[in-house]
Amino acid sequence: MMAIILYARVSTADQTLDHQLTQAQAAGFVIDQVVSDHGVSGVSTTLAERDQGRRLYDLLRSGDTLVVRWIDRLGRNYADVTDTIRGFMRKGVIIRTVINNMTFDGATKDPIQMAVRDALIAFMAATAQAQAEATRESQKAGIELAKSRPTAYLGRKPSYNRGQFEAVQSMLATGSGGPTAIAKAVGLTRQTVLRISADPVKAEAMLAAWSM
Fold this sequence. Notes:
The chain is an alpha/beta fold. It has two domains: 4-105, Rossmann fold (3-Layer(aba) Sandwich), CATH 3.40.50; 126-211, no CATH class. It contains eight helices and five strands. The protein has helices at residues 17-26, 51-59, 78-90, 111-148, 162-173, 179-186, 190-198, 200-211, and strands at 4-10, 33-38, 65-68, 94-97, 103-104. The N and C termini lie far apart (48 Å).
């Protein structure tokens, strides 16, 4: 029996497994099983190095579908993500993403379709790595900005958490709809999405200030 398995990587206290599962279900996925890694950095560990990542390799069989919020869940950089996706496809596993509803299937034998699929994998993996690097730079700048401010007044507490902030950043980078669609997907107001989009460093600084 073919299974649909959601893999979630929860790297911060503000991210939640329930939120990622709810997003997947809202996108129309009927999940049979959830596999999740908690407190794991996506930029320093490969999928195979994570406890539940190794379990995922054992669970998935030909014909199964692996669902992830975005392909950055599957590795730490461009090479790692592309290798992971192609490895699963060789096993006959279909990979689908919640953001943008992308499908990567190794079953096709048509050379043109294969070329388009492989080019799309490369593009999406490169986009994921670029977004991860931009997020790291935004975090560094935001933390420095937060440190430079007087600690007596932190300003208004952000209306978004780390998981929502990262989801907005990912969806903006991949063109996953306009502010209204993104706001609905992550559970924020349209104005909040617009503020994050307009000044991600300031948005990161607010998170950093309230977590220091």
